[in-house]
Amino acid sequence: MPSSLDGTDDPPDSDDTVGHELRELTVDAALHGQRLDKALVTLAPEFSRNHLQSLVERGHVCIDGKVAEVVARKLRAGQSLQLELVPTEESLAFRPQPMALDIVFEDEHLLVLDKPAGLVVHPAAGNWSGTLLNGLLAHHAAAALLPRAGIVHRLDKDTSGLMVVGKTLPAVTALSRAIAAREVHRHYLALAHGRVPWDERSVDAAIARDPVSRVRMAVLASGKPARTDLQCVARAAAYSALACKLHTGRTHQIRVHLAWLGHPLVADLLYGGALALGLRRQALHAARLRLQHPIGGAWLDFERLPPADFSKAWAQVTQG
Fold first, then answer.
1. Which of 9, 10, 64, 156 is catalytic?
2. With contact defined as beta carbons under 8 Å apart, do 276 and 267 qualify?
3. In angstroms, what CA-CA distances link 270 with 159, 196, 273?
4. How far apart are CA 152 and CA 176, in angstroms?
5. In this predicted model, what pLDDT tens digit does every residue of 129-155 receive, in sequence order?
6. Residue 234's beta-bridge partner residues?
7. Cα separation of 83 and 22, whole Å?
8. Annotated catalytic residue 156
9. Element (H, E) at 165
10. Which tens digit of pLDDT belongs to each residue from 184-242?
């Protein structure tokens, strides 16, 4: 089963009872006076204590037929303990979940889609369902046989725009190699705070996990090489409209490089960009994707206009 990556949204509770199991025991002398959560470990030793505590909090544990609400409750000999085992959220992560996908191009080898802002690409802690991966598993059965359901690169949750996904193992392998060889060309539109003092600039600055905040990345000499080409399209008031080209694909790369230059993306709260221009999410859109077909070899070129929120903000800067 594919490994999980990062994400942010809380998943909704599932009403699916597939995989549920009911276990019962009568509290004996050995468990008398023990905390409820410790007794549950005895009843279901294959699960972590944290998961069993979460089952108590979600109402899946009963004492003498009544829902238990306190994990630290002390038990008494003779009490009847019932535990409804619910699969961990992680175990439900790789389930098909039908969703509307804005598919720009598709054949038997790959598909290109326009990801909306707000959609997480891959399940991870705190976001085990409702991701693009879940949608791909529902879209075509072969995705279940592929690493990460064919996902070969990602966009951040609040970044909109074009992504390519492999549909067969040869296509996934070829696409992954092309991305590593920098043969897949990805162009973005961005809105940054401040009037940038340059018309064109190339940023070649290594990126690594921020040692202070694990949810952020940072420019660090010890990081992996990262290069972004920037072009200023327009300036207005206290903002700049930029065209960006990725040469590498580090996590949060454009966001980190612009923040490092002192021009964080509009509404990118994680990297110091304040809400502005009507945007409630980072001002970044993957507008163009150019690549060679992984099987046929023909060049494919796709462009997609930004969604309404970004377009309105973009117009304020470029037409203001």
1. 156
2. yes
3. 13, 20, 7
4. 6
5. 899 999 999 999 999 999 999 999 999
6. 241
7. 6
8. yes
9. strand 160-166
10. 999 999 999 999 999 999 999 999 999 999 899 999 999 999 999 999 999 998 999 99
